Amino acid sequence: MSRPRLLVVEGNTAKGREHQISFGGIVASEGYARLLGELWPEVTVDICFPADPGANLPDGAGLESYDGVVITGSSLHIYNGGPEIKPQIDLARSVYKSKTPLFGSCWGLQVATVAAGGTVHKNPRGREIGFGRRIRVTDKGLNHPLYQEKPAVFEALTVHLDEVEALPPKSEVLAMNEHSGVQAAEIHYDGGVAWGVQYHPEYDFKDISTILKRLNGGLMNEGFFASNEDASLYVEDIEELAKDPMNKRLSWRHGISSAITQRDIRVAELRNWIELKVKPTRSSRARG
Q1: Burial group, residue 36, by CB count within 10 angstroms (0-12, 13-18, 19+)
Q2: Alpha-carbon gap, residue 69 to 27, rounded angstroms
Q3: CA atoms within 13 A on the CB side of 191
Q4: What is the domain extent for residue 147?
């Protein structure tokens, strides 16, 4: 059998990627590709940029050469439409049709939802940022491979202003919390299957601290911080956790458990997608 291949679909525009880098972060697709390579050392990971004008995107035949496709997060809003967004929806539909396993984080879940006929809107409860609290695996989720070796209730690293408003037909909600009724879902469309989560199992504390710094002014306007000093102190805590995720003092202060501080639990959804969805599908397709 040939060497395994995964495709990471970058959700951000070139301007959005540059903005993230300017605050000391890395491009979402690069971080995602790195983690996928750690979880599956034999894999080759390619990246595509459908939000860029003139991007060279794989067609159906090209997608079938991949063992799985992942869609990253993004600062875009899918209900705005436009030339940065439509190619991403079209590409997701092509992934479904190719029957290549699809995984989406945050924006990726939203793209997978809209591509299959569902809807996304601005969350009326506002932004969820930093730590998604009390995410509860549903009855369907408890028996789903996505949540193997994951607590039934957990926290997750997260940042999103939008949420799934209505899932497409042939979908199941796998996790939820008070902030969003769809924190995870399985979606079936045109012969293909997507697993998606509204939070970010691919993120670490450094990713969150960079986003907090990038959004700082807006977060004060949204009521998360009372002042620049207040925001800076919070970011300092997150950066300390980036250096030492097992810092007991800060874990207690911010009310976070091993679901975030222990990497193996934090990335379980992606590991399960690779081991329990991608690899079995790869074997059944038996290419090369």
Answers
A1: buried
A2: 17
A3: 6
A4: 5-152+162-200+267-285
Measured between alpha carbons, how far is 110 from 217 in angstroms, rounded to an integer? 25
Alpha carbon distance 220, 71 (integer Å): 29
Nearest to 132 by CA among 108, 107, 113, 157: 157
Of 194, 212, 195, the residue nearest 203 (C-alpha): 212
Residue 62, exposed/middle/buried by CB under 10 A (0-12, 13-18, 19+)?
Answer: middle
Count: domains in the chain: 1
pLDDT, tens digit, 9 for 90 and up, residues 236-257: 999 999 999 999 999 999 999 9
Model pTM score: 0.96
Nearest CA to 201 out of 187, 180, 183, 178 is that of 183
In a domain, 236, yes or no: no
Q: What is the pLDDT of residues 18-29, one digit of tens each?
A: 999 999 999 999
Tokens (6 digits) for 144: 């789903």
Q: Which CATH number does the domain housing residue 55 bear?
A: 3.40.50.880
**CA nearest 259: which of 197, 180, 187?**
197
| CA–CA distance, 182 with 175 (Å, rounded to integer) | 6
Residue 45, domain member (yes or no): yes
